[in-house]
Design brief:
Elements: E1 2-3, E2 7-8, E3 10-15, E4 18-23, H1 34-49, E5 56-60, E6 64-66, H2 84-101, E7 106-110, E8 113-115, H3 117-123, E9 127-131, E10 135-137, H4 151-159, H5 161-170, E11 174-175, H6 176-181, E12 187-189, H7 191-205, H8 210-222, H9 228-243, H10 246-256
Parallel strand pairs: 4-5, 5-7, 6-8, 7-9, 8-10, 9-12
Antiparallel strand pairs: 1-2, 3-4, 10-11
Helix pairs in contact: 1-2, 4-5, 8-9
Bound molecules: ligand T3D.
């Protein structure tokens, strides 16, 4: 997890019940190289395994969230041509799956510009907050690539086909306030208050019924391909599982006793 000898490319902070992950290559606007990808994959795998981690906050150090792929660190094949396929296969596609399939909520605090894969990584998170000064840029067309990291799947679902299409074909920046107005992100905060708001939100999620939230994430992702009939069956299956979990009993008990619930997050 180091940049050169000293500087970790990913800061991993364990908080009470949650993990804060900070992309930390600020001189490159937190552009992704292999080392950062490996560190982030490792931290997300650790978060998935650890019952004591019940939510994750992803953010960036410095003035940017992430400028996407480090264009100075694209690997080359033996004949010297860019090996883009290997980067997407080994890193970006697994990262998006990790974020979507993590059985705990992932909050993204977009502290500054999010470009290329950086924007689409943010859009793959569960709840996205952004600093008022932040921008989202589908920068791919500017370098003659197609949007990746799931952007062609997530962005039209978030903002509609026409807006996604124009953003991707033109590569124009989408300011944070417009992103909020279009439903691409949850909320904009003033730059100075973004991190406190993101930390408070993540801390709150870490006290909630984690298993139910994990199944909610899964159900939402399945809804994009399921028919209504199939989705009703899935909701039934997940609702039965949640009903048998201790947090449901605790939630109902807390409601009747007029007190906040004390959820364990466990499935059993
Ligand atoms: O292998 C593959 O390529 C496949 C995977 C693709 C996924 C992708 O993400 S493709 C898209 C890659 N990203 C971009 O094309 C964005 C490139 N960056 C920009 O367009 C601009 O930097 C921003 C609009 C994001 C921000 O502009 P600005 O003016 O605020 O900052 P800047 O001066 O351009 O950047 C600051 C420094 O970061 C600068 O370094 P310097 O001159 O101070 O030494 C710049 O070179 C560096 N930087 C920014 N983005 C990247 C980067 N270095 C490497 N890779 C970057 N993507």
């Amino acid at each position: 997890m180091s940049e050169g000898v000293m500087e970790p490319v990913l800061l991993v902070e364990r908080r009470e019940g949650w993990l804060k992950l900070t992309l930390n290559r600020p001189k490159r606007l937190n552009a992704f190289n292999d080392e950062l990808h490996r560190a982030l994959a490792g931290a997300l795998d650790q978060a998935a395994e650890d019952d004591g981690v019940r939510a994750v906050l992803l953010t960036g150090a410095g003035r940017g969230f992430s400028a996407g792929q480090d264009l100075a660190a694209v690997p080359v094949t033996s004949d010297g041509s860019p090996d883009i396929g290997s980067v997407v296969t080994r890193f970006y596609n697994p990262l998006i799956r990790r974020l979507r399939e993590l059985p705990k909520p992932v909050v993204c605090a977009v502290n500054g510009v999010a470009a290329g894969a950086g924007a689409n990584i943010a859009f793959a998170c569960d709840i996205v907050l952004a600093a008022r000064s932040a921008q989202f840029i589908q920068a791919f067309s500017k370098i003659a690539l197609v949007p990746d990291s799931g952007g062609t799947w997530t962005l039209p679902r978030l903002v509609g086909d026409q807006r996604a299409r124009a953003l991707m074909l033109l590569g124009e920046p989408l300011p944070a306030e417009q992103a909020e107005a279009w439903g691409a992100i949850w909320k904009v905060h003033d730059d100075e208050t973004l991190m406190a708001a993101a930390e408070a939100l993540t801390a709150h999620l870490a006290t909630q019924a984690t298993h139910a939230l994990a199944l909610t994430k899964r159900a939402l992702d399945r809804s994009s391909t399921n028919t209504l009939a199939a989705q009703l069956d899935l909701e039934l299956e997940y609702q039965v599982a949640c009903g048998a979990a201790p947090d449901y009993a605790e939630g109902v008990k807390a409601f009747t006793e007029k007190r906040p619930p004390r959820f364990t997050g466990r499935a059993r």
